[in-house]
Amino acid sequence: MSDIPRVPRSGSDAGAPPPAPTPESDDDAAAGAVNEEYRFPCPTCGSDMRFSPDTGNLVCDHCGHVEPISAIGRASWTSALQELDYQAALRQEVPAAQIVSVRTLNCQSCGAQIEFADGEQAKECPFCASPVVVDSGVHRQLKPQAVLPFALDERTAHAAMTKWLGRLWFAPNGLQQYARKGRRMNGMYVPYWTYDADTRTRYSGRRGDDYWTTETRMVDGKPRTTQVRRTRWRSVSGQVARDFDDVLVLASDSLPRDYTDALEPWDLGDLKPFLPEYLAGFGAEGYSVELEPGFAIARRKMDAVIASDIRRDIGGDHQQITGARTDIGNVTFKHILLPIWVAAYRYSGKSYRFVVNARTGEVRGERPYSAWKIALAVVAAVFTAAAFLYLNNMQGG
């Protein structure tokens, strides 16, 4: 990193050296050390700098000064992106340097795990626009190991969302006005788990091979020959193997999974080791789906792929899987942050959310329907049908 100073976000003791850890609190001290909220003051004017998706650098909006984020050495890079052992994590044997203490609160409206900076007590939920007030609790979580930095700025994301909203049929006029007004979007890093695993699956099933027979039937008193397709079934068994890499699971319940799944694929090959500089100017959601429940979701994704492998291994024209037993080993994981732009729109007392992949511009979201537009469409359809029948009758007369 460049020589730009990192200033902890804290109270009157900001910038003071951290207290020496007592023997019984070494782990807590290590967790606190990796959890500090940083700001990056501009060396020219002192204003806060932010990460710029356009340049990949820290930029000061006040005076325009730019500070590059220096490259990390190859050895440090490999270490930073190293997979963690899943079983060791379940036994709570993760190194203290991988643990972070955070102030979070679940949004009661959408379930988002909202993180609060030191001294911050209330804010608006970026996912549903509901007011959120923090409690005094501090929670220990696994530290993010990697981050996929923002590549699209807010203006580009807003243009993608506006275009998407413009294609929605029967949307209320207020929704279009919302898009045209250019209301702010929230740049958020969303938590994900990635899982690696080696699998070996023994299966049993049936293979169906089609064949054709010639049959003669009497139609209107005359014989008619036709070809009839039939299937010959036989029992099969075998084994398939697959090594899974980076099975992606959203570690949050704040957004519908069908929306976030539709934002894929993500260019995970461009993951960067976690640095707080990438978060400068953006928000970050803490994970609310723990490691073990996340792996259960990953297993369902793996099972679907394994089932496809089995059908391909069975071959033939049709396949039936009657049994499958999977041995799974070498399970590892990473906690990563992926970037999205979020907008929350309230209509008739309900929140609707739109999300934009901040790497590709893919858009997904919820949408309200305008009752009067639907009613007008129905009336127009009825009128058109009646006019069509009337003209046919006139021509027939």
Q: How would you characterize the overall build of this protein?
A:
This protein is α+β, with helices and mostly antiparallel strands. It is built from eight helices and 19 strands. It has one domain (7-18, 26-205, 236-366). It is 25% helix and 37% strand. α4 packs antiparallel against α5. The radius of gyration is 29 Å and the shape is extended.
Name the overall outline. Answer: extended
| Share of residues in strands | 35-45%
Distance between the termini: 86 Å
Low confidence ranges: 1-37, 118-122, 369-378
Please provide a brief summary of the model.
The protein is of the alpha+beta class and 397 residues long.
Keywords:
397 residues, alpha+beta, 3-stranded antiparallel β-sheet, extended, disordered N terminus
List the topology elements.
Layout: E1 7-8, H1 26-35, E2 38-39, E3 49-51, E4 58-60, E5 66-67, H2 74-80, E6 84-85, H3 86-90, E7 99-106, E8 113-116, E9 122-124, E10 131-133, E11 139-142, E12 146-147, H4 154-166, H5 173-181, E13 186-219, E14 222-250, H6 257-262, E15 272-273, E16 283-284, H7 291-314, E17 318-347, E18 350-357, E19 363-365, H8 371-396
Parallel strand pairs: 12-17, 13-16
Antiparallel strand pairs: 1-2, 3-4, 4-5, 6-17, 7-8, 7-11, 9-10, 12-15, 13-14, 13-17, 17-18, 18-19
Helix pairs in contact: 4-5
